[in-house]
Design brief:
Blueprint lengths: L1 E7 L3 H12 L4 E5 L11 E2 L8 E2 H14 L4 E3 L2 E7 L2 E6 L3 E9 L3 E3 L19 H4 L7 E5 L3 H10 L5 E5 L9 H9 L3 E4 L4 E6 L4 E10 L2 E5 L2 E4 L3 E3 L2 H6 L22 E3 L11 H22 L7
Parallel strand pairs: 1-2, 1-8, 2-5, 8-18, 10-11, 10-16, 11-12
Antiparallel strand pairs: 3-4, 6-7, 7-8, 9-17, 13-14, 14-15
Length: 310
């Protein structure tokens, strides 16, 4: 079987693209290592139209329910390779090779690492990149969030519901969350901000994180005792598949797309956080996914003239 469109990525963008591709009467499927994407690791979403306040996992479950309603295949498999073929493209997972006329890359981003000694060693032993996933494990514990963005502030606020103390460690002069979250952080008595400071090493007893080393003294010591550490310092585009296909990237590693979510490679489209658009939100990712699906639909109409298997 040759699919009309395979979407790589199962977050807001990928599922939105799949729903519209289905409505365009395309044979479409989703391949994703983890269905739900980064939004499924978000505590509370309050800026997606139609939901005044909803958890990230609950919102993504609504998306998946919508796709299931149309019986859109959503396969949780890691895509390790894509390449051009005689009729479109081949998409290879660990267990199977799929053929498709078009590809939509909605691969999103992954969490940036601190890249300091001990971070890798104590991952899942106190170091976590997802507060919503792991906050409950730190009830009445000492934890720290690294970063100064809105994401860092939201991580700290969530952790404060569980931990006894939450530090925000930021290399800059002042954290820069959205105004409402800045107020909430300031009012929260459990949260303490350590500015102009970096973590230079993560330490533990071999089994779990016990403390971190700072590049300057805080309250008379370079050592800060912690049970949990949550880096929130940015995201890295997951662009390996794009590189395999010869898709052009910008200097940040993001896929260069036009207003119709088209890349420089015919039949390959991209949308969401992986793209080079400036504003990255769930609602804009969903819209870009729709545009990518429509572009793929138009391309097939021109290149193949129908939607039948070949």
């Amino acid at each position: 079987m040759i699919w009309d469109c395979i979407i790589v990525g199962g977050g807001v963008t990928g599922i939105s693209a799949a729903i519209y591709a289905y409505r365009f009467n395309m044979k479409v499927m989703i391949l994703a290592k983890d269905l739900g994407g980064l939004l499924a690791t978000t505590h509370i979403v309050e800026n997606y139209p139609g939901y005044a306040s909803i958890s990230g996992p609950d919102l993504m479950e609504k998306f998946k329910e919508h796709a299931r309603y149309f019986n859109i295949p959503m396969v949780e498999e890691f895509v390790k390779k894509v390449n051009k073929a005689k009729c479109g493209f081949e998409v290879k997972t660990e267990s199977k090779t799929y053929k498709t006329k078009t590809i939509i890359l909605a691969t999103g981003t992954e969490h940036k690492k601190l890249d300091v000694p001990g971070e890798k060693e104590y991952r899942n032993k106190g170091v976590s990149y997802c507060a919503i996933c792991d906050a409950a494990f730190f009830k009445n514990k000492l934890v720290a969030v690294v970063g100064g963005s809105d994401s860092a502030a939201k991580e700290a606020l969530l952790l404060s519901d569980h931990a006894s103390k939450v530090y925000i460690i930021y290399r800059g002069e002042k954290i820069r969350p959205e105004p409402i979250n800045a107020v909430n952080v300031e009012k929260n008595k459990k949260i303490e901000i350590i500015n102009n400071t970096n973590i230079v090493e993560v330490k533990g007893d071999g089994k779990k994180l016990t403390h971190v080393i700072l590049d300057k003294e805080y309250k008379g010591s370079n050592q800060l005792n912690l049970d949990g550490l949550f880096p929130a310092i940015g995201l890295i585009p997951q662009n390996e598949l794009a590189r395999q296909l010869g898709v052009k990237l910008n200097d940040k590693g993001q896929i260069i797309i036009d207003e119709n979510s088209m890349t420089n490679v015919e039949g390959v489209y991209a949308a969401g956080d992986i793209g080079n658009r400036g504003y990255k939100q769930a609602i804009t990712g969903a819209a870009e996914g729709v545009m990518a699906a429509f572009s793929a639909y138009n391309y097939i109409n021109i290149a193949y003239n129908d939607f039948s298997d070949e």
